[in-house]
Amino acid sequence: MAYPRLIVDTKKIESNVSKIVALAKEEGITIAGVTKGFCAYPEIVKAFINGGVDFLADSRIENLKKIAPFDIPKMMLRLPMISQAKETVEYADISLNSELDTIYALNEVSESLGKIHKVILMVDLGDLREGYFKKEELFNAVDEILKLDNIELYGLGVNLTCYGGVIPKRHILQKLADYKNEIEKEFGIKIEMLSGGNSSTVHLLGTGNIPNEINNLRLGESIIFGTESAYGKHIDGTDCTAFQLEAEIIEIKEKPSVPTEEIGRDAFGNVPTFVDRGIRKRLICAVGKQDIDLESLYPLDKDLIILGGSSDHTIIDGSDSKIDYSVGDILAFNLHYVSMLRAMTSEYIEKIII
């Protein structure tokens, strides 16, 4: 059996998806299931579809190609590269956009392929990642898009918390709703989709604080792990253990808890700090920062303390554990979104999907 390995429980994922889809549907909100975190593995995509997502969404063309066989509308999350305009139209029904030059390129490709491509214009409401920040620029973009024969202005969208950490609140999302209403009135059109963000908006479900106009969310973390990402709170009735990492112990030694000589930069260019706990039993596992994020890795043995690691090693304090570990034993870890993202991307971790 190869280690490290990642075990993925698709039944838990499907259950999480169905619960959150049901919450959203109570407010007339559709769900775009974001597949990028697990590299669009088809078996996990099936769990999303069985759980009831309305769209599949990804930020990479490579992943959109993987999910092409599934008969469900697909969304390109990251602003398309002009160099990938053709593939964007071929593999995505909808794309998120904020640059007219890119939309012009999508229009040309769509015309050559005999397609109508749907776009969602992104609006920056303070998080300062993608989107139109100025109202006049947004309205100018709408005016230009309506002149194009092979582009449909399908919706408006916002992204929050991913860069600036701005937490979705009613007054912020109301700005998006107001833009929709103004555009519909000024241009005499209907905006089909108002996409109110990602898993950080989930904390507003059931509170009455999502404007009625919002009818879509783009969710990955919340439907995989059952946690909203604004405050990191667990969603009732969901399971956060769908992904579990197993790694082999390759060394056990009694060592000081603080290096014994002058401390400089570590392998990643940082100057580390240490807590002096005296002489401790230290375990080393054969998995490291190239494959996982130590900050979102949680040993099932609650008495273990993750001290840190390097590219290929995770160093753990095992002095307080009630288990007498030996070299060659396997440690199991629950993990959260960033660790999942790295582990699924890493070719050095075997994936077991059940």
UniProtKB/TrEMBL annotation:
GO cellular component: cytosol
InterPro entries per the UniProt record, alphabetical: Ala_racemase, Ala_racemase_N, PLP-binding_barrel
Cofactor annotation: pyridoxal 5'-phosphate
Taxonomic lineage of the native organism: Bacteria, Bacillati, Bacillota, Tissierellia, Tissierellales
UniProt domain Alanine racemase N-terminal: residue ranges: 8-224
Pfam families: Ala_racemase_N (PF01168)
Domain of life from the UniProt record: Bacteria
Keywords, in A-Z order: Isomerase, Pyridoxal phosphate
Keyword Isomerase: yes
Keyword Iron listed: no
Full protein name: Alanine/ornithine racemase family PLP-dependent enzyme
One GO MF term: pyridoxal phosphate binding
